[in-house]
Amino acid sequence: MASKVFIVTGASKGLGAAIVRHLLGQSHRVVVTARSENLLREFKEAHPDQVEYLAGDITGSGIAERLTDLAVKSFGKVDGVVINHGTLEPDKFATASLEDTRRLYEVNFFSYLAMAKASLDEVKKTKGCILWVSSGAALKPYAAWSTYGSSKAAINSISSHLAVEEPDITSIAMGPGRIDTDMQATLRLKGKDTMDEAQYQSFVDAFQQGTLVKPQQPGTVMARFVANPSHELSGSVQLELT
Question: Which positions, given as ranges, span the membrane (predicted)?
Answer without folding.
Answer: none
